Amino acid sequence: MSSSPSSPAILSAYATLTSLLHPTAPLEIEILPSSISTTTILHAGNSIGIPKRLLTACLPRARSTFLAHKDDDDDDHQNEDGQEAATTPALDATLVLQLLNPEHLSAANFRKRCLLLRRCNRGGEDDDQAAVSCTREMVWIESLVTSPLYRHAKSPTLWAHRLWVLKTFLHSLSLWDAGNGDGGGGAAAGLLARELGVVMRAGERHAGNYHAWNYAREVVKLVDVLGSAGVERGMKAVVEKMHGWCLAHPRDISGWSFLAFLLRGQAVDGHVARQVYCETEAFVERLRWQGKSVHWFLASEAQILDSRTSLMAQSRPIDPSLSGNSS
Question: Distance between CA 7 and CA 54 in Å, rounded?
């Protein structure tokens, strides 16, 4: 394959690649090692296999396209009906740039600008088209952080970008996430359950994934701000789901730390926290588990539960019949 960015082979591969990277559902993207002789992109359902040599050959084309078109006016990218085009050459180029380098700040910032400009072009209203654009952006980031790629699952730039999209376009995304909850907890609980599922898959790709679990903390704080009654109804299911993940990955300190963070939240009932503690203690005794992560969690939760019990005892009213001053 010719290495020239303008060669027919590179142009064809670049066009095929960018057309596949506009998902409506999360993709599983894998970069195939150089030892595999194929020079074509493998595509089956939502799974994509991209030969490393082909991807690196497309990089100069993506870089030159991005630099040439990143400052284009919006009027340059309208379809025949005068409507705003769904994508632009520079936006397509960012797909390849982020696939090769998850810390590409210029690509992430350009995608932010495109989302903001599209909302401004609609008078600042989050209409159905804006919701579609935001949802596709979230799906694209999810594809990157949950795919078997080398650095993407733990990329601080990608997680920060996802949090920005979530906070900036929450109104648009709340409707999308409302139907993805685990049991009628409302839009806020659905949002939390949906995002936690993404973080869990990223945590499986890279153990001890600090940036992913820190993103989950920010989502919990955002949901708490919403103040929805559905959060309390759905939080028990979220805690149970998270506890199951921790028991399946007992060495992952980041997961246990996030579970401890959840249990300290006001939306979690004390009985739920005690149940999690007892089940974890039984897990350790049954398997004779010696891992430090689980024992740290038990020691930390024991202190919290003891303090809660002390506070409850202090706040409980004293029966006058039990006091020594009864007449």
Answer: 13
Per-residue pLDDT 10s for the chain (327 aa) are: 556 767 888 899 999 999 999 988 999 999 999 888 778 899 999 999 999 999 999 999 999 999 999 887 654 445 544 445 567 899 999 999 999 999 999 999 999 999 988 877 655 555 667 778 888 999 999 999 999 998 999 999 999 999 999 999 887 765 444 444 444 446 777 788 899 999 999 999 999 999 999 999 999 988 877 665 556 677 888 999 999 999 999 999 999 999 999 998 877 788 889 999 999 999 999 999 988 999 999 999 998 877 766 544 454 554 545 444 433
- Cα torsion 107, 111, 116, 120 to 10°: value is 110
SS3 assignment, position 84: strand
| Exposure string over 97-112, b if 16+ CB within 10 A, otherwise e | bbbbebebeebbebbe
Maximum Cα interatomic distance, the chain, rounded to a whole number of Å: 101
